[in-house]
Design goal:
By secondary structure, the chain is an alpha+beta fold. The protein has a single domain, classed as Jelly Rolls, CATH 2.60.120.590. It contains four helices and 14 strands. The strands form four sheets. Strands 1-12-9-14-7-4 form a six-stranded antiparallel beta sheet. A four-stranded antiparallel beta sheet has the order 8-13-10-11. It has a two-stranded antiparallel sheet with strand order 2-3. It is globular, with a radius of gyration of 17 Å.
Length: about 220
């Protein structure tokens, strides 16, 4: 998206389009996601403990592409026709191919997403993540891993598109915090490409070093 400005001051790319989908599309997609997706609340392994996620989740995508993070392995459910149509639209705009969409259902102001990076080996070195939102708007935050003064916030409106690419997942964490005031439900899909075979950690680190050296 050449004409869309970068929200991040350095070390990555995050681009935001507020009205990527129309109001009618938002209502339709929200209804489909509420009714056709098999939502679950599942535990994550964090700090040596098993903790329930403060939201509902699902993995939609190609049948042979499970997704693993924080001790959890998610098996994909088939693409609903409407969400597959959404995937095709995003691929046409962004010039890439997605295998999966991680879905998060934030039921109210108490549901949230903690600080993290989408840096699983299955996603490759510099993954492109396309995040779309439907329902209530929520504040989305970035913080730089080594420069604590660098923080960026953007309010994700219904029908918006946020694209993270380049070295973002190496240098920035992101989160969606709880809110003080009441919030209606919000559903978010993060489209991503899961590699055919996850790269061994040593091989992945070697490729990152080689990529960094070539830019120096």
């Amino acid at each position: 998206m050449k004409d869309v400005p970068n929200l991040l001051p350095k070390d990555g790319v995050a681009q935001y389009v507020e009205n990527f989908f129309s109001a009618d599309e938002c209502r339709g997609y929200f209804s489909v996601l509420q009714s056709k997706v098999q939502w679950k609340q599942e535990p994550l392994q964090m700090f040596g403990r098993s903790l329930m996620q403060p939201r509902l989740t699902a993995l939609i995508g190609d049948s042979e592409k499970p997704y693993r993070y924080s001790g959890l392995t998610m098996q994909p459910e088939n693409w609903p026709a409407e969400i597959f149509e959404m995937k095709n639209k995003l691929e046409a705009v962004l010039g890439c191919t997605f295998t999966s969409a991680l879905a998060n259902n934030y039921r109210d102001e108490n549901d949230s997403m903690g600080w993290h990076q989408d840096d699983e080996r299955e996603l490759g070195i510099n993954p492109l993540i396309a995040s779309v939102s439907f329902g209530a708007s929520r504040m989305f935050r970035f913080r730089h891993l080594t420069d604590s003064k660098l923080k960026v916030s953007v309010e994700l409106a219904s029908g918006s598109l946020l694209v993270m690419s380049g070295e973002t997942q190496h240098h920035w964490q992101h989160a969606l915090p709880k809110t003080k005031g009441p919030k209606a439900p919000r559903i978010n899909l993060t489209f991503r490409t899961i590699l055919e075979a996850p790269q061994p950690a040593k091989a992945l680190q070697a490729r990152i070093k080689k990529s960094s050296a070539s830019r120096g």
